[in-house]
């Protein structure tokens, strides 16, 4: 476990050289270095010549065996062949809980598959497109057709918006995800757009590894550029603050993917990967 701020800074600068594959860990280390609001820690297999880096909540945070939102591990490896041995150790991952592994490397898949099979753990795997940008971006006038008329307003989100965000989040819609979203909004930026009636119509939220997630626009306000406006607003904010910024999008959302390409966001070839692991006793 790396505790010293100097070592964390050295690791952070090293991980930067492996972006985009290291993004989930890189973003988590950024937050660990900066107040560490989710009480996470960094594990390496060796120092300074590491091959595997894992970020995870400290043990006292993972007290709910069913809370896979909190029980999330981010992994980056330079040696996929060594990963199975490391992940199998109980002091590294608690395989008796429901948890998630997130990363930006397809090469994590084989080690997770082998260990989960040996431990009778069910794995639900999701792969999406990893989106990133390195430069501040601004929408062209034709990207937002009614935003500038004065009846719509950009706002910063707070925990009071968690219920609405939770209702529409594909990975959420339950009490544990609600608590997770509230915690994200207490500690990280979230931005949205208010419609003429004063209700939230579009939003996006940052989480503990600096990824922007939970993006949504209510159906009647789609195809008007509100999500593009919100995404650009948040992206420029985090770039100005020198916070890592990236997010993932389903391969099936072609219209949204085209909008991102118009704004010069780029898709990383490595993809975004998540494994939700559930011990047999919880299935």
UniProtKB/TrEMBL annotation:
E.C. number: 2.3.1.-
A matching Pfam family: Gly_acyl_tr_N
Main enzyme class: transferase
TM stretches of this protein: none
InterPro entries to which the protein is assigned, alphabetical: Acyl_CoA_acyltransferase, Glycine_N-acyltransferase, Glycine_N-acyltransferase_C, Glycine_N-acyltransferase_N
Record bears the keyword Acyltransferase: yes
Gene Ontology CC terms, in alphabetical order: endoplasmic reticulum; mitochondrion
Annotated ranges, domain Glycine N-acyltransferase C-terminal: 191-279
Keyword list, A-Z: Acyltransferase, Transferase
Superkingdom field: Eukaryota
Every Glycine N-acyltransferase N-terminal domain range: 1-189
Sample GO molecular function, one term: glycine N-acyltransferase activity
GO biological process: long-chain fatty acid catabolic process; medium-chain fatty acid catabolic process; monounsaturated fatty acid catabolic process
Classification via PANTHER family: GLYCINE N-ACYLTRANSFERASE-LIKE PROTEIN 2, L-COA N-ACYLTRANSFERASE-RELATED
Protein family (similarity comment): Belongs to the glycine N-acyltransferase family.
This protein's name: Glycine N-acyltransferase-like protein
Organism of this sequence: Panthera tigris altaica (Siberian tiger)
Gene (UniProt): GLYATL2
């Amino acid at each position: 476990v790396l505790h010293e701020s100097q070592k964390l800074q050295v690791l952070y600068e090293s991980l930067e050289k492996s972006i985009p594959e290291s993004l989930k860990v890189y973003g988590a280390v950024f937050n660990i270095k900066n107040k560490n609001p989710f009480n996470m820690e960094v594990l390496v297999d060796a120092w300074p010549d590491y091959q595997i880096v894992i970020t995870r909540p400290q043990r006292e945070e993972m007290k709910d065996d069913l809370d896979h939102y909190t029980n999330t591990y981010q992994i980056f490896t330079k040696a996929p062949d060594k990963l199975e041995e490391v992940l199998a150790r109980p002091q590294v991952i608690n395989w008796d809980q429901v948890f998630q592994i997130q990363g930006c490397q397809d090469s994590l898949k084989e080690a997770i598959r082998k260990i989960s099979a040996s431990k009778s753990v069910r794995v639900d795997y999701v792969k999406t497109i990893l989106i990133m940008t390195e430069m501040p971006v601004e929408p062209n006038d034709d990207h937002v057709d009614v935003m500038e008329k004065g009846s719509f307003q950009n706002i910063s989100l707070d925990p009071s918006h968690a219920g609405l965000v939770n209702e529409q989040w594909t990975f959420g819609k339950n009490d544990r995800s609600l608590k997770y979203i509230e915690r994200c909004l207490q500690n990280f930026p979230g931005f949205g757009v208010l419609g003429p009636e004063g209700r939230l119509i579009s939003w996006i939220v940052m989480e503990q590894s600096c990824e922007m997630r939970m993006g949504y626009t209510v159906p009647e306000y789609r195809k008007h550029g509100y999500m593009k406006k919100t995404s650009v607003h948040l992206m420029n904010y985090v770039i100005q603050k020198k916070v890592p910024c990236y997010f993932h999008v389903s391969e099936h959302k072609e219209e949204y993917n085209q909008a991102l390409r118009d704004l010069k966001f780029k898709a990383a070839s490595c993809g975004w990967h998540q494994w939700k692991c559930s011990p047999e006793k919880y299935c």
